[in-house]
Amino acid sequence: MSLAHFFIASALIITMVLYYSTRVPCVYVLDFNCYRPPDNLRVVPATFVEHLKIMGIFDSESVDFQAKVLERAAIGNESCLPPTFHEIPCNPSLTGALQEIEEVLFTTVKDLFAKQKIDPKSIDILVSNCSIFCPTPSITSMVIHKFGFRTDIKSFNLGGMGCSAGILSICLAKDLLKVHKNSLALVLSTEATTPSMYFGKKKSMLITNILFRMGGAAILLSNRKQDRWRAKYKLQHIVRTHMGSDDQSHNCVFQQTDEHGYKGVSLSKDLLVVATKALRINIAELGPLVLPYSEQLRYLWSVLRKRIWFPEKEQTYLPNFKKAFEHICIHAGGRAVIDGVQQSLRLQKEDVEASRMTLYRFGNTSSSSIWYELCYFEAKGRVKKGDRVWQIAFGSGFKVNSAVWKCISDLDPNETNAWSDRIHRYPVNIPTVMEH
Questions:
Q1: Is 331 a catalytic residue?
Q2: What confidence tens digit (pLDDT) does each residue in 357-370 have?
Q3: DSSP states of 67-106 as a string?
Q4: Given the residues 80, 163, 375, 407, the one annotated as active site
Q5: Is residue 163 annotated as a catalytic residue, yes or no?
């Protein structure tokens, strides 16, 4: 071998070593599972309003206000609340909150492990998020104790990060999987509704009583090469937007006590304005990563026309994000949230179907709602190999987070999930004002 051949061979070997040693591992979703509450915990709107009246806590004005919000909330007869809310009087105790977390997360994790035949001791990373409820020991500690995870598990418990925390948890798990090779990560997203009930009279704080319902999701992630062939999805992008430096954004979703000392979460009238602004910033960063060049060029050309030739008349072109994604999962935060995103992105009725049906059946389950929506698509048999999924979540702070997944397997629409028991009934027509 000549000296030149030796140097060429050495260069190739070094290049290959550097490539494989510095390559960022792929993150896969092996599977996920969403909690399906038992029917005995259903909250029929008429029963909910009657319960408000006979509890003896709210005055007539507060009851009437909550009843009117419920009529327009687009939440149906099948959403559920934990046992505490079915008792008279309602007593949102610490014990009740712990029981809710155990019921939702323990059931969800148990079913996921059984389905995938996962040994709890094979989990390397555990991340949970619950915004309002932060017990000691933590929620991750409760799960570790229940299932007997290893002593060297890397666990993280996120709190106070609102309905967008599910994607934040995925982002944290992704970053950990970059560092820890050949690992499995379990992400748990939920919100405890038991300690969230507000018993005062302030209207901006009463709205959360109507919107939020019990629910949760467990997502099993992997960066192991051997799991590529059995994984459902591959993570493509995560884009996070935080508007916390702006006063209006910071204060639009705020936990506080009212003048009578009752604790609750206040939703500002500026919420939709803030959410729209944050969404624009988020998609401006996401667009170049996912949109085809034709859409990017049309957008760039419209910006140039507006700035140079027609600053007052020309409207900036809004890219068609349906050319980048086959499925869109919009956080089911409320009818107004879904309407706002649909209008901002100029989406069709079918594009927001999963979000509206999730809100109608399960209510606002906070950070887990985007996974219920993906469940809906799967149960309908709409997710095909090669399809791209966009999850959009909104949360206090104010935050907008996007996650982009690519389906890499042929999915079985008959697989059991949170929707499979009655998917044949959906979609349903949701009236503007619902009777109760």
A1: yes
A2: 999 999 999 999 99
A3: HHHHHTS---S--B--GGGGSSS----HHHHHHHHIIIII
A4: 163
A5: yes
